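Q: How would the structure tokens look for this protein?
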Amino acid sequence: MVRTDNDSELGGASQQHMLTGSASGLADSRVREAGSGYCSKSSEHPTKFRAATWNIGTLKRRSAEVVETLTRRKVDLCAIQEHRWAGGLTANQARLIKGKDSVYKFYWSANNKGLGGVGFLLAEQWLEKVFDVQRISDRIIQIRLILGKVIFTFLSVYAPQVRRTEAEKQHFYDQLQVSVNRIPASEVLFPLGDWNGHVGAESSGYEDAHGGRGFGIRNPEGERVLEFAVANDLVVGNTHFIKRPSHLITYCSGTHMTQIDYILYKKRFCSAVKDVKVKSQLKNAPSSIILSYVTSWLSCQRRRSENSFPVSAPGN
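A: Here is the predicted structure in token form.
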């Protein structure tokens, strides 16, 4: 079951429209209404957007600390895993969280046990750009933002751990694939989160998705991530930049170091993503923050907009 936010704050779109994934009519209308506000003089970073993913272990009693960390890192949108807030897939399940000098809005999906859960923390200055939010399950949530004149679709995912059953893993990827299939080709797709798989240091067999600059040894769960990426013309951003190990490792416990958190995006979008790297984490958080920096493509769109050229995402 998919739950959709469709109140006036989020821009309003019918649930039937969201479930079919045919965004051509309404999305185009909303994009025209939004114009190029993203590039206005009032925008703090008019040509940059910083997206991140973070398995935080829990958001209970540390929400302000998390927001302050994201503010210091100048993160615009952060995909969150394991927030452990109770809830469900209820539409409009969101809350403002205040830090010392900033405010983020938390959109989440969860289960009634208050275990696991995924969500997004979105900086206050971007709230008017939210097009819709869909809560697919307690492991997958989707948010769509109108940036410039293009819709960016972000998926926060929390894949089942290695010890979980094969049926549970298959169900997760089936749900994820159905969600991706509903996203129009004109939108810019970013699936990001805790994938609980090792894609490994080398690209062997998956050159289309793996940049050959990963970490560790590939396992079956990592192969599943790569197969999903290849099937959807995505790349694993963490493997496409030369980094020292400390900027690749997302989980460390004693001598055990792994890379299981990834930011994926369309292959056609590679030139716009200027960096993907691991940054320091909160104390006791299971994994580190992974940041991606989208810069040049948005800057290009701004110049086109100013010169009255039509702006759209590149075709497949």
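The chain is about 20% helix and 30% strand.

Helices lie at 15-20, 24-34, 63-72, 166-181, 220-231, 296-306.

Upvote if useful.
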